[in-house]
């Protein structure tokens, strides 16, 4: 890994993990000294992060970590639905012999759900998030599309940053496990329409959870009216077989709703 890549990865991690919070200035002198690098790789890293939308570069004022707004959160989740719905469709089209990873993940997700239901979670959900990271990796590999993967990687930096403000209520986490399990089962069964529907429900629930956290904890209770109507869900990417993608707003509610 080159020095420029190392600087980029370090800054990206600091932003995603909120060590550099929204609005934090990215002074070149301070960062170059802290990271022990010259300004050339630092500037290149900042430009890459600006391209991803994690950094804002203002003429005459330098760079800063991008703020989080309600409007941008909704737009990120619209993009997320389009990308992830099509990714799981591609996974569901795999041959049964190629779905061994998802069969294993289904078993692990079932066990994780039972653990979450028991309330006996001692590691602040770190093991669960590692499992979900493995699920994301399996979807990336199963979709086998480098252009889709590149777009998803950029998007996930924002999603991981938002996860830090999402509510980790025990009931919410159980719902999340249910949602991921529904996606995984649909992929294993080769049902791409159901897989896309399950993703849409999961994303809709995740968006509502994050908007609730933002309005209650950041913006204040006066903006809770934003959540009285379900957020508009965008269309998923058009499938190859001519099926119309389902949305969280027009698909039947599953018996057990999932969360992110």
If you had to describe this structure to a student in words, what would you say it looks like?
By secondary structure, this protein is mainly alpha-helical. The chain has two domains: 3-65, Winged helix-like DNA-binding domain superfamily/Winged helix DNA-binding domain (Arc Repressor Mutant, subunit A, Orthogonal Bundle); 70-227, Four Helix Bundle (Hemerythrin (Met), subunit A) (Up-down Bundle). The protein contains nine helices and two strands; from the N terminus they run αααββαααααα. The protein has helices spanning 3-16, 28-35, 39-52, 70-92, 100-118, 126-143, 146-163, 170-188, 192-219, and strands at 55-58, 62-65. Strands 1-2 form a two-stranded antiparallel ribbon. The chain is globular.
Architecture of the largest domain in CATH? Up-down Bundle
The biggest beta sheet, please?
A: 2 strands, antiparallel
Distance between the termini: 32 Å
Please count the helical segments. Answer: 9
If you compute it from the alpha carbons, what radius of gyration comes out, rounded to the nearest whole angstrom?
19 Å
General shape: globular
Number of strands: 2
Q: Give the name of the CATH superfamily of the largest domain.
A: GntR ligand-binding domain-like
The CATH class of the largest domain turns out to be Mainly Alpha
Count of spatially separate domains: 2
The order of strands across the largest sheet is 1-2
Oligomerization status of the protein chains:
single chain
SSE arrangement, N to C: HHHEEHHHHHH
Instruction: Quote the average pLDDT.
Output: 84
The share of residues in helices is: 55-70%
Q: From the helix content, strand content and strand pairing, which structural class follows?
A: mainly alpha
Strand percent estimate: under 5%
